[in-house]
Amino acid sequence: MGMSKFVAYVGTYTHENSIGIHVYDVDPNTGIFTERGVEPINNASDLDVSRDGKFLYSIEDEGVASFSIDKNGDLKKINQANIGGMRGCCVTCDSKRRYLFVGGFHDGRVTMMKLNEDGSIEGVADGIFHQGVAISSHDRRLDHPKVSSVRLTPDEKFLLAADYGLNQVKVYELDYENGKMRLCDNIHTNLDSCPRAQKFSADGRFLYILGELTNEIEVYAYSLKDGKPDFEQIQAIPSLDNANLSDLSSELVISDDGKYVYVSIDGFHGVSWFARDEKTGLLTHKGQEPTSGYFPKSMAVLPGGKYIVMLNHDSDEMRTFIVDHKTETILMMNFPIKINKPNSIRIVEIP
């Protein structure tokens, strides 16, 4: 990987023994993580790093918090702000650091928060509570709005708020000048899917939505038609062979080269992976393996694509695996990294 330096930020739940966001030096050639410190914060369940790599934003019990990232990759807290609702679940910011977007799992609220030039959070600009109930065949999870992830479209004209409880992804048109969101579309995911995670391909042409309960990846072609977003489902593929209701697909990531998609699966205690056709966006299942731990909530592909790291939430550890796509296998490497209740990871290149 040349002379590049990489740092990983791992958010944890702090109701037991952890105290916040763990900071690691990462060697993508060996998959080795070396801890350098912990930044105190309450229940950093989700993180996002600004596109310029200067700031990190985190969910916390008090709302959201901002941190500066120095030239070595260390964190320093700037401020925190209330989000105007119950505790948040997920967070993302736009590439120009104008606004921070927060999804609330407990109250079904999407919040748009103004950011200042110095990286600090000014406060709430707009907030919308989702309403309604889902059509469900059997499951109690689909009983009231629960925003499980927020994601900007690649052109950043729209915000996608996946609602686990309503079984849909709401699409908001963004007014950056006035700090407003306007509902303009709904993506109705498959019956009882409980959309959990969503990712766009790097070229912006395809959207991948992971259903927790159906254990499916729904693939959508994305385009603009007369300035309006258009999503067409082109595939729905099981995230796991012989899946059942207790498997519960959790996180979806795409490799930097766009050739592979990985899914962490709670109840299976493992990972499943797919080859991705870059022209058509379609997926082909290639393998699945347990990850020697319990309930992997999140994961990441290390730069270069040689390794993946799994956050085994309930067994309080991270584990790295080397990926061999020729033999379609993964092999655990290095010693497990002990960390209490890891839940979110971001790997950043430090110039």
Report what the structure shows:
This protein has 351 residues and is mainly beta. The chain has a domain at 40-187: 7 Propeller (Methylamine Dehydrogenase, Chain H). Helices cover 0% and strands 57% of the residues. It contains no helices and 28 strands. It has a four-stranded antiparallel beta sheet, with no helix packed on it. A four-stranded antiparallel beta sheet has the order 4-5-6-7, with no helix packed on it. The mean pLDDT is 94.
Summarize the structure.
0% of the residues lie in helices and 57% in strands. With 351 residues, it is mostly beta strands. A hairpin with a 4-residue loop joins strand 21 and strand 22.
Shape: globular
Number of helices: 0
Overall pLDDT confidence? 94
Largest sheet: 4 strands, antiparallel
List the strand order in the largest sheet: 3-2-1-28
State the secondary-structure class.
Answer: mainly beta
Helix percent reads under 10%
The CATH architecture of the domain at 40-187 comes to: 7 Propeller
Q: Could you say what the CATH topology of the domain at 40-187 is called?
A: Methylamine Dehydrogenase, Chain H
Query: What's the SSE pattern?
Result: EEEEEEEEEEEEEEEEEEEEEEEEEEEE
CATH first level of the domain at 40-187 = Mainly Beta
Give the beta-strand count.
28
- Unreliable stretches, pLDDT < 50, 5 or more residues? none
- Portion in strands: over 45%
Could you give the distance between the termini? 13 Å
The gyration radius over C-alpha positions equals 19 Å
Q: Tell me the CATH superfamily of the domain at 40-187.
A: YVTN repeat-like/Quinoprotein amine dehydrogenase
